[in-house]
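pinging the channel bc i need a second pair of eyes. not urgent but kinda urgent?? the chain im working w is below, pasted from the shared doc
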Amino acid sequence: MAAIRPLVDTYFVRTYYVCMNLTLSVDDEIVVAARQRAEALGTSVNQLIRDYLEQLAGKSDPRADAQEFERLARKANGNSRGWKFNREEIHERR
């Protein structure tokens, strides 16, 4: 029996990532205030919106996440009262 050949030559398949343009309707006053805020932050409104959408989509910066975790851990002042994690207890079904 002869082998069935795929219809697409997968050896030369490439993946391309493209940027999508997005048009928004925003009041002029908001755009002016956003531009002033972006300028004060040393960035652009476009970059602020891009960052927000990446965060909204769940895409985040691992370094920033680690810094935020460290900041929150230092702020927590937790006290385990001497209790230490035990592998069996952690994975025990209740």
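so The CA atoms of residues 33 and 39 lie 10 Å apart. and Helices lie at 28-41, 45-56, 62-76, 87-91. — does that match what u expected or am i reading it wrong
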